């Protein structure tokens, strides 16, 4: 069964680039543009990993992260926070709320892919 | 032995008795058993008012003017009714300020002015000297009359008068007495208990003698009042005496006599001395205010009977009515009674002279001699305490001699009454400054001086010089034709006023000039700080806090030892040491000798000195050792300006604290705003960073994807390259707009205001964006007048606004069916442009937010459209530009009904 990735970001071009990167790794990719849609998408089908931007409409990334971690059905879901605000306090906040890792925008695509694979327990070649 | 020997010896024996009484009282006082701490003694001492003028003169006056003698007693009786209010206040002021005399009182009230003190003293000497002369004359005349008549009567005519000049001896003996009992202590504000007791004793003697002679005349020479008055009524000349007609000047004269008697009983130096300076306890006033009028009543009971009897018995005339009291007992063969009467008269004269001279010596030494002496104080560096007493003694002798001289030169030509009246009218001049001064703070030093001066000039002219003219000292034409022949300056008909008798005339003009000058100057004068403080101390003497004022007067520097040295120069080193020790103990102070003296200690030293040398001299002396700022005039004045200084002060404090509170509140608000601004700035930076990172992220991601995926098909490759370019463009715009906005908001943006045509601006903007419309096949229509619409504005900035609105409109229009209208509007407030689109419209909640920074309405469709990517700053900048032109920009819209952006600007934004 293909690995399920959920991309949550409101910047269309960024979503486009992330979709490209994840599909290229052979993952099954869905993408949404706001917090509510993200939770609905998780409800619909549990993803293995969520690439979660912080600054999204309706519910922000922190709230989505918190909701996911509060849901026992989502225990195994990995969460990588994406943040365009580089301040440490925001990164720490994401980690404290249960995110597995964070990535600062703009990111190096190779590193991001490696990070995703590592988190999913896939061997890096 | 001749009466020429007996009477003088008896007089000396009587004075010896007085010495004994005074000495005894002083001894008792020294042992702490005060005899004068007694309302009856106090009242009797006030009766020093009844002098030989009363004793002999009122009978003389009654014999000539009938009940015209009454005002002299009516005045004090009325005044006594006011004492409880008036005298209580004056005493309280005097005790609080260590006042030693009436000159001191006035000087102290008006800023401790040495000049004013000296002036009052001078006036007192000029005004009251005749009165002393009068007493000497009375004693001398009574003695001569008694001796003459007794010798005559008993047929024991002796040879020539071996005594020579009686008055001179009398003067010298009284001077001795005054020196012994009036200058025992240096502190003139201390009481002279021996003197007061002696005076009280004399008051009993004179009243007793007068009552005895009255009883003898009424019941001895006649058969009671009925007989006496009956016989008098039979004589038409005497009958006239019982009506007001007998009095020259009628009611006006009555009124003016009563008035000046009222003032005299308070402000004659001796009255002020016994009433105020010698007062032990203000409670004594209560008894004095009914007992003293009673005493006067007793004294006057027999004035008319004696006068009538004299007129009846000596109807042949030739007998001086002033001597009726003395001669009637002799006529009645009552030698011992005559001697007693003589002693009564002696009592009346001596008591007056003693108290008057003591009071005046204090004044003259403190307010005339000392200030002059202190001018040359370099020569008097040593202990002055001994010198001051010597000076006072010298002054007493000098005053006595002056009185004697006056009597010799001028006294012979006048009756007792007219001399007394001159003095009464003189002291009445002090009344306005004192009476108005203790109730109205506004009376200034210059006003008091002006008033006194005016009053005295008029008094001298209308009474004193007139009396000189009468006694032939100056030409009689002075009276009849006025000085230098100027008729309207005639001393008894000033400005042609000949309605009144001479006294009323003088009282009227002098008090009018006095009060008028005083009030007028006060209204326009500015008081110094010292004056204001003293005015407050006097007017508000009963109010709490008013007495602390003295301390504000000193803010300079002086060491404790210097201050002590100064005090010891006047009171002696031992006394100064004791005073300072007591004060420090009382205040729980422990000051080193070289320490700087606190203001209250300086004030204490000044007060202590005031008792010794008067307020004005004390102030001069203290300021001679205190260096530096004498006093912060402004601060003190402002604080003490109003009557209710304490209230005002606290009100000021309250106001200050309210102001502080308000300031704190304001600061807090500003601080909160600053914090808010700081937070906004942080947020802005964070947002800007986010906004910059977003296009950067796309650019980097796609660049790396292109690099890492060389096998990518051409369509994707082109699409991704296009995204990179667009995001790069957006980044550029974003950076530019952020800089623009920062410039506008910090006020550093340059604005080029000029006359421009809004139609042309709109056309330029349409030209610049028409490609966007063509790309998306959105229709654009422009509705504007055919003529130019001129206004003053920055051309490029307005074009920027219109372009922004147009590109926004086209961005949100659907391709092909989209339509945008541009309208140019002219309304009374100015001109503007509307950009109407038929796009999706804006939710109501977002209408306000669209102008906020980085607010972007759903840009999900951007990537598919051939329009610039939004930055979220365009509308914010538009708003700032329009606001700079004093216009406004807003949006009207509803979901699904398109949006209309409008701006409106005045034709001229000004500068």
Structural write-up:
The complex is a heterodimer of chains A (125) and B (911). Chain A is of the alpha/beta class. Chain A is built from 5 helices and 5 strands, in the order E-H-E-H-E-H-E-H-E-H. Chain A has a 5-stranded parallel sheet with strand order 2-1-3-4-5, with helices on both faces. In chain A, strand 1, helix 1 and strand 2 form a beta-alpha-beta unit. Chain B is mainly alpha-helical and 911 residues long. Chain B has 5 domains: 412 residues, Sodium/glucose cotransporter (Up-down Bundle); 115 residues, no CATH class; 96 residues; 106 residues, Helix Hairpins; 156 residues, Histidine kinase-like ATPase, C-terminal domain (Heat Shock Protein 90, 2-Layer Sandwich). Chain B is 67% helix and 5% strand. In chain B, helix 6 runs parallel beside helix 15, helix 6 runs antiparallel to helix 16 and helix 6 packs antiparallel against helix 18. The longest helix of chain B is centred in the last third of the chain and has 64 residues. Chain B is elongated. Chains A and B meet through helix 1 of A and helix 29 of B.
List the helices and strands and how they pair.
The complex is a heterodimer of chains A (125) and B (911).
Chain A (H helix, E strand, L loop, with lengths): L3 E5 L3 H13 L3 E5 L2 H10 L4 E5 L7 H10 L7 E6 L4 H9 L4 E4 L4 H11 L6
Parallel strand pairs in A: 1-2, 1-3, 3-4, 4-5
Helix pairs in contact in A: 2-3
Chain B lengths: L2 H28 L8 H8 L5 H14 L5 H27 L4 H8 L4 H41 L11 H17 L10 H29 L2 H11 L1 H4 L10 H18 L1 H9 L6 H17 L2 H11 L10 H8 L3 H41 L9 H25 L6 H12 L2 H8 L7 H26 L6 H4 L21 H23 L4 H11 L20 H12 L1 H15 L11 H15 L1 H11 L7 H8 L4 H64 L5 H33 L6 E5 H19 L2 E5 L6 E5 H18 L6 E9 L2 E8 L36 H11 L3 E6 L5 E7 L6
């Amino acid at each position: 069964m293909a690995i399920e990735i959920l991309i949550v970001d409101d910047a269309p071009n960024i979503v486009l680039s992330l979709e490209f990167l994840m599909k290229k790794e052979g993952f099954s990719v869905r993408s949404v543009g706001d917090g509510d849609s993200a939770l609905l998408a998780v409800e619909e089908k549990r993803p293995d990993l969520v690439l979660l931007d912080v600054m999204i409409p309706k519910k922000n990334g922190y709230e989505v992260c918190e909701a996911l971690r509060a849901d026992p059905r989502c225990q195994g879901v990995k969460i990588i926070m994406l943040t365009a605000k580089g301040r440490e306090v925001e990164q720490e906040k994401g980690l404290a709320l249960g995110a597995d890792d964070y990535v600062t925008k703009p990111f190096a695509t190779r590193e991001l892919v490696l990070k995703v694979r590592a988190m999913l327990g896939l061997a890096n070649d | 032995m001749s009466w020429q020997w007996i009477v003088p010896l008896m007089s000396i024996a009587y004075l010896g008795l007085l010495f004994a009484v005074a000495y005894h009282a002083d001894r008792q006082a020294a042992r702490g058993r005060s005899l004068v701490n007694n309302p009856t003694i106090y009242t009797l001492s006030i009766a020093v008012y009844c002098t030989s003028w009363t004793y002999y003169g009122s009978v003389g006056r009654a014999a000539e003017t009938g009940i015209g003698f009454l005002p002299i007693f009516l005045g004090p009786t009325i005044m006594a009714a006011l004492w409880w209010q008036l005298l209580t206040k004056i005493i309280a002021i005097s005790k609080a300020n260590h006042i030693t005399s009436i000159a001191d009182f006035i000087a102290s009230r008006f800023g401790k002015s040495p000049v004013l003190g000296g002036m009052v003293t001078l006036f007192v000497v000029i005004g009251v000297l005749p009165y002393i002369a009068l007493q000497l004359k009375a004693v001398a005349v009574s003695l001569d009359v008694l001796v003459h008549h007794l010798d005559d009567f008993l047929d024991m005519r002796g040879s020539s008068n071996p005594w020579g000049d009686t008055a001179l001896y009398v003067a010298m003996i009284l001077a001795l007495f005054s020196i012994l009992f009036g200058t025992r202590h240096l502190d003139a504000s201390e009481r002279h208990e021996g003197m007061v007791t002696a005076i009280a004793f004399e008051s009993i003697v004179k009243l007793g003698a007068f009552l005895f002679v009255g009883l003898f005349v009424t019941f001895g020479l006649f058969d009671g009042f009925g007989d006496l008055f009956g016989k008098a009524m039979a004589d038409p000349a005497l009958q006239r005496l019982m009506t007001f007609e007998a009095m020259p000047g009628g009611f006006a004269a009555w009124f003016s006599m009563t008035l000046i008697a009222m003032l005299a009983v308070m402000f004659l130096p001796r009255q002020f001395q016994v009433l105020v300076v010698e007062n032990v306890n203000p409670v004594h006033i209560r008894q004095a205010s009914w007992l003293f009028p009673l005493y006067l009543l007793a004294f006057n009971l027999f004035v008319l009977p004696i006068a009538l009897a004299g007129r009846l018995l000596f109807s042949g005339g030739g007998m001086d009515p002033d001597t009726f009291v003395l001669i009637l007992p002799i006529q009645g063969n009552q030698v011992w009674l005559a001697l007693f009467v003589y002693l009564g008269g002696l009592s009346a004269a001596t008591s007056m002279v003693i108290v008057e001279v003591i009071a005046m010596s204090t004044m003259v030494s403190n307010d005339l001699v000392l200030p002059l002496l202190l001018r040359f104080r370099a020569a008097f560096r040593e202990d002055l305490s001994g010198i001051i007493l010597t000076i006072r003694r010298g002054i007493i002798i000098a005053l006595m001699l002056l009185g004697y001289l006056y009597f010799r030169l001028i006294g012979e030509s006048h009756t007792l009454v007219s001399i007394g009246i001159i003095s009464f009218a003189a002291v009445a001049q002090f009344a306005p400054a004192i009476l108005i001064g203790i109730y109205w703070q506004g009376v200034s030093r210059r006003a008091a001086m002006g008033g006194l001066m005016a009053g005295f000039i008029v008094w001298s002219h209308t009474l004193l010089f007139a009396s000189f003219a009468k006694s032939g000292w100056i030409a009689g034409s002075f009276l009849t034709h006025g000085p230098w022949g100027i008729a309207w300056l005639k001393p008894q008909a000033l400005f042609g006023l000949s309605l009144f008798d001479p006294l009323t005339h003088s009282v009227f003009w002098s008090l009018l000039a006095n009060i008028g000058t005083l009030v007028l100057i006060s209204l326009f004068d500015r008081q110094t700080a010292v004056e204001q403080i003293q005015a407050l101390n006097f007017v508000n003497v009963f109010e709490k806090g008013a007495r602390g004022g003295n301390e504000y007067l000193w803010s300079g520097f002086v060491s404790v030892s210097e201050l002590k040295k100064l005090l010891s120069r006047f009171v002696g080193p031992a006394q100064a040491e004791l005073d300072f020790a007591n004060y420090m103990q009382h205040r729980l102070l422990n000051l080193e000798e070289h320490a700087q003296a606190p203001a209250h200690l300086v004030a204490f030293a000044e007060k202590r000195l005031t008792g010794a040398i008067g307020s004005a001299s004390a102030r001069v002396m203290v300021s001679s050792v205190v260096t530096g700022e004498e006093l912060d005039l402004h601060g003190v004045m402002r604080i003490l300006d109003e009557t209710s200084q304490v209230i005002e002060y606290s009100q000021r404090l309250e106001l200050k604290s309210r102001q502080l509170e308000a300031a704190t509140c304001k600061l807090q608000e500003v601080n909160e705003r600053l914090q808010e601004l700081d937070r906004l700035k942080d947020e802005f930076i964070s947002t800007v960073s986010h906004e910059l990172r977003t296009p950067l992220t796309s650019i980097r991601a796609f660049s790396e994807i292109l690099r890492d995926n060389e096998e990518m098909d051409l369509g994707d490759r082109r699409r991704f390259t296009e995204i990179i370019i667009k995001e790069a463009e957006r980044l550029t715009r974003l950076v530019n707009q952020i800089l623009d906005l920062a410039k506008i908001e910090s006020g550093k943006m340059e604005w080029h205001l000029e006359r421009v045509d809004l139609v042309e601006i709109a056309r330029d903007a349409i030209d610049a964006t028409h490609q966007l419309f063509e790309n998306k096949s959105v229709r654009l229509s422009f509705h504007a007048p055919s003529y130019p619409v001129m206004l003053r504005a920055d051309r490029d900035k307005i074009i920027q606004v219109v372009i922004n609105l147009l590109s926004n409109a086209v961005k949100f229009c659907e391709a092909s069916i989209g339509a945008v209208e541009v309208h140019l509007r002219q309304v009374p407030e100015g001109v503007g442009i509307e950009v109407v689109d038929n796009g999706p419209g804006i939710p109501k909640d977002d209408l306000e937010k669209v102008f906020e920074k980085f607010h972007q309405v759903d840009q999900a469709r951007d990537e598919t459209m051939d329009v610039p990517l939004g930055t979220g700053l365009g509308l914010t900048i538009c708003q700032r530009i329009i606001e700079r032109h004093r216009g406004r920009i807003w949006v009207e819209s509803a979901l699904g009904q398109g949006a209309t952006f409008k701006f409106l600007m005045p034709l001229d934004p000004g500068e």
